Structure formats: structure tokens, C-alpha cells
Amino acid sequence: MKTTVCLFFAVCILCCSLCGCGTQSGTSAGGDSSPAASNQNGFSQQTEGSAPASDESDVVDLTVLSSTMVYAEVYNMMFTPEDYIDKTVKMRGQFAVGQYVDENGQLDPKPVYYACVIADATACCQQGLEFVLDGDFTYPDDYPELGSQITVTGVFQTYEDNGYTCCHLVDAKFID
Question: Residue 81 and residue 168: Cα distance in Å, rounded?
């Protein structure tokens, strides 16, 4: 059981490190020629048949998009984070926890990362977005069960970690 949990954390960390942080230049290794990279965030700010309201221009509601579009939008967030800074993001996905593993294969007790992980339409690829809850919360008491479906909202921000720009939602809250 411990081996399975450690393996799960290692996979979460790998996913978060590969998908949660952009490159130092802010572009993907393959450039910005992919369809997901060329689609900026315009589609997430309006629903079909309506123009975005001026007060909603800073809200990115991923819960109203198809799984393919959500995956593409989160991809955009990772590789063009400057387009999303200070926008409120609402997303639905699986709750995941990640920790660093030291050179001896032992879990480092700090820092612990909490993420909302989404899959693409075929469920073969996953991307996660780290979040930091607003308030004083203790894991696991105040958090959902690992792998459970959550909806979280928070303000998109970036931070530096070992020379890389990483993304997370701050002042986050769970929504029922």
C-alpha cells in the first residue's frame, strides 16, 4: 500500500512538474505552432451565442467547456501564463496531492502541493493546476479524498521555482 501511495505521489509530481511549469522562456519546446497554443483564451470567456460581459472578462470558467477544450485551455495556461494572470479560474477535476521525493526515494514532508487534475477527451493525457486554499487548512482533515471530483475556483498567479515559472490558483475555494 505504501509503495502504491509513493508511486501515486511520484506520478503526480511528474505530471505537475511537466505540466504545471512552463519553460523559462514561457514557450513550449516545440514552439507555438500547435493548435492548442495558437488558440488563446478567447473561447473560455463566452458561452455559445453570447458576447462576454465586461465584468466577466477576468473570469475563465472551465466547467462549461468540453473535455477537449478544457485540456487545451489548461495547456494554454501552462505555456502562456501571462495571458491569465489575475483572472479568476473555475475548474472541475480530480483532487491530487504531490510531494517531492528526495535523492533516497523518501517523501519530503514539505512542500506539499494540491492540484485539480483534468484529463483530455480520451483520458490518455492529464494536466493539473496547483491551488492554494484561502484560509488555514490542514491536510488531510480539511481536504477531499484523493481522486475525488472537485470544483475549485481561485485567482491565477505565477511563481518562480528553481528558475522556472510555475502556475497556481491562489485564494482558492472549493465549490459544491
Answer: 10
